[in-house]
């Protein structure tokens, strides 16, 4: 079984405050990082993940696919935080990022993490037991 996406992404950077995963039009993960209280009502986050981010991503994807080699991610700068929206499988992953953070570097790390399959418990145990690998 793979680790939840939210826990994998929270480990990338302390400035990641929120992670949501929309898979096929349904929210399958939506988590706020401990120590970073939400800045808005939970229901507006749900509407953002179900309506706003899919529409924004689809519009940008269509434009990018014309002649700009697609879309890697979209950064939205709100007054209180950034939101990074990354296409993922048949949906998207949204990451709330603190103001003042290097949002492009975080977006790149998120995209890389999403492209890299998470390891299962056996692989993690072997990596801990054999940190230098098999020699």
Describe the structure.
By secondary structure, the protein is of the alpha+beta class. The chain has one domain (5-129): 2-Layer Sandwich (Beta-Lactamase), CATH 3.30.450.30. The protein is 40% helix and 26% strand. It has helices at residues 5-10, 42-67, 103-115, 121-129; strands at residues 16-23, 26-32, 74-77, 81-88, 91-98. The protein has a five-stranded antiparallel β-sheet with strand order 2-1-5-4-3, with helices on both faces. A hairpin with a 3-residue loop joins strand 3 and strand 4. It is globular. The two termini are 28 Å apart. 27% of the residues are buried. The model has no long low-confidence stretch (mean pLDDT 88).
Whole-number mean pLDDT: 88
How many structural domains in the coordinates? 1
- CATH C-level class is Alpha Beta
Distance between the terminal alpha carbons, to the nearest Å?
Answer: 28 Å
**Contiguous helical run count:** 4
Oligomer kind: single chain
Q: Please name the fourth-level CATH homologous superfamily.
A: Dynein light chain 2a, cytoplasmic
Q: What is the H/E string?
A: HEEHEEEHH
What structural class is derived from the secondary structure elements?
A: alpha+beta
* Percentage of residues in DSSP E strands: 25-35%
CATH topology: Beta-Lactamase
Q: Which key phrases capture this entry?
A:
135 residues; 4 helices; Beta-Lactamase; alpha+beta
Describe what is shown at a glance.
With 135 residues, the protein is α+β, with helices and mostly antiparallel strands. The protein contains 4 helices and 5 strands, in the order αββαβββαα.
